[in-house]
Design a protein that fits this description.
By secondary structure, the chain is mostly beta strands. The chain has strands spanning 4-9, 18-21, 25-26, 30-38, 43-50, 53-60, 66-70. The strands form two sheets. A four-stranded antiparallel β-sheet has the order 3-4-5-6, with no helix packed on it. It has a three-stranded antiparallel β-sheet with strand order 2-1-7, with no helix packed on it.
């Protein structure tokens, strides 16, 4: 289980970054279910769920400006 709760993509956190949070509704009724860090290729992957089907949605590589917020419930 992932303990990443929110990821922000972009160098200007306040005004120019895109923010994605677990539980956020996106893309026509889908909900962000997981944000996972792939240590093999140093990427962050966002998965969405709709009707109990989990789909990969977005992938960000290590070359992008990324801010990660972790869930403090362990």
């Amino acid at each position: 289980m992932s303990n990443i709760r929110k990821i922000s993509i972009g160098s200007d956190y306040k005004d120019g970054a895109m923010h994605y949070s677990c539980g956020q509704e996106v893309y026509g009724g889908h909900v962000i279910s997981n944000i996972l860090h792939d240590e093999k290729d140093e990427s962050y992957n966002i998965f969405i769920t709709k009707s109990n089907e989990v789909l990969p949605w977005k992938k960000f590589n290590k070359n992008m400006a990324i801010s990660v917020e972790y869930d403090l419930k362990y």
